[in-house]
Specification:
The structure holds two protein chains of two kinds. Chain A is mainly α. Helix content of chain A is 78%, strand content 0%. Chain A is built from ten helices and no strands. In chain A, α2 crosses α8. The radius of gyration of chain A is 19 Å and the shape is globular. Chain A starts with a helix and ends with a helix. About 8% of the residues of chain A have low confidence. The mean pLDDT of chain B is 96. The chains are: A mainly alpha, B mainly beta. The interface between A and B is large, with 33 and 38 residues.
Chain lengths: 218, 463
Amino acid sequence: MSESWPWLAVALLGAYHGADPSMGWLFAVALGLQERRRTKVIEALFPIAIGHLLSLALVVGSILLAMRPAPRQVRLLGAAALIAFGVFRLWRPRMHPRWVAMRVNLIELGAWSFLMATAHGAGLMLFPILLNLGAARVALHSHHDAMVLAETAHSGLSVAQTGGIILLHTAAMLIVMGVIAYAVYEWAGLKILRTAWINLDLIWAGALIIAGVLSLII
Amino acid sequence: MALWKTDQTFYPSPRMAMQAPREKLAYVAVFNPDASNGRPDAICVLDTDPQSPSYGQVVGRVEMPYAGDELHHFGWNACSAALCPYAPHPHVERRYLIVPGLRSSRIHIIDTKPDPRNPQIVKVIEPEELARRSGYSRPHTIHCGPDAIYVSALGTPDGEGPGGLFLLDHDSFDVLGRWEVDRGSQYLAYDFWWHLGYDVAITSEWGTPKMVEHGLQPDLLLGGKYGHALHLWDLRKRRHLQALDLGAEHQMALELRPAHDPTRAYGFVGVVVSNKDLTGSIWLWHRANGGWGVKKIIEIPAEPADPEQLPPALKPFKAVPPLITDINLSLDDRFLYIACFGTGDLQQWDVSDPFNPKLTGKVRLGGIVSHAPHPKGGALNGGSQMLELSRDGRRIYLSNSLYGAWDTQFFPEGIRGWVTIVNARPGGGLEVDPDFFVPFTGERAHQVRLEGGDSSSDSYCYP
């Protein structure tokens, strides 16, 4: 149980980003409607997912590299960054890249997704999970070998595990995004933008702060 | 303040916005033509709910802090463009009216909540700040964009050009600066709007402040010096793409009404007057050969008149020009409404096929010669001028003044301000509403904005 929940959390966060209209599915639907072509919706989802993945890879990679030499400082720094970012997003919920464009090619669409995910703090949110997975691994190996313990305590996660986190997150996002985009384009319609779009920015800002606090505890 | 749910006045598509509930209030810019009496201009609140005991009356009024602003056009801080997919912020509120003084260059931010009948001024941007941050002066049209509030300006603080666009921050209403990166051949400015589905903006031309503030200059008009071109821009790169010259004969290309459906790349512009034969005209801009083209689709002729009945400026012509000063397009892109300040006509044209418009309705209120009456208001002066269409396309709110210095040239007796409603039948056809008539004593009504939005307040990113 204690080993699987971080992975579940990674997937759920991905699903959450998939459901958030400002993270991509809405853009895909809009592009499909503009061209009156359902294949355009599907075509658009992949660059959005790749942009999101690259943003995660950049942030997660930086965190893990920094943790190698200075795990304790990075924990404090990461927690502080999460809390500060959450407060900032509460204070200025609409600060995001200004990108006025409907006519985008696939590379621009990926770049847009990368910027939105980064400005959103999508990768940063994985910080407490990374800490936890690192710690779990240490715990797992601790009764085997003192040498392994010494090594993993510093390196945290393996490259395969890191890749797994990022891929799992992005896959969950892509699936949820695809299902919603398809449903909205085909039958649900855009009226749900008026009825079901709750203020996810507020929820997300709160979640960032909670994640920051959690990072200090776990 | 952020909402928990999407602002319920935002609609993803113009089609959905047509289903919006009926407006219960209207806001109207009221201008005091004689600033020497020290009375400031105001935004008045009209009750437009037929179930209300105060229907058709002024139920609120907020005066500007100084006299002499010349309130003209105004707009909302936020609208349906907030739902655009690349920068969505659906939890802002449509709440503040951005109200510039066309003569003073002061911009007022007016809060319509908590009491929509008792709006309050919450911020004033002084002309010096506007000039310092943008280089512009004489702010005119307001559109709430996906990423900021866009405002057009007629010129620079010294009264010359170029005019152009500047941005206001969505939240703080601070002036963010000039919009254009490369203005190409554009110098004159007036109105603007965009095709969000194509990342294209379009601007029109009137004149610099010096060309308009002392009245209509006959030498400039006859010399073809007022604006007669449209400009297309890359909305994303903020660069000039193409100028569409209508020809110097076609003086003053003013109001721009692009199709509301973002997949349709065409729109309509009204030209006030031809300096050859005094006709007014409507032009259609559209995509052509990888760029844009423009074509005259409607021409409204001048009407012969006895010079005795004409103001001095028009006596030599022995005719009343229609003077097309405002147009509006229904949210389904089906009906185009044309106001003719000179003759007092309000015309309705079916533009389902934009290249082949058909006249479907006509009423006349006021007019230089006809003074066509209203059942409740009697003989009217001024003429059908600013018009705003309800989102369902059923009611046209009409006012009768143009611009202080120009009103007097066409109506030397002075304009008695009024606002009325003209009802549109769903299949086409117009009739003057016999009950709704709001007179303004000693003041002139200009633009009307409807509670929750109207047919020129919102832009949409979805068809």
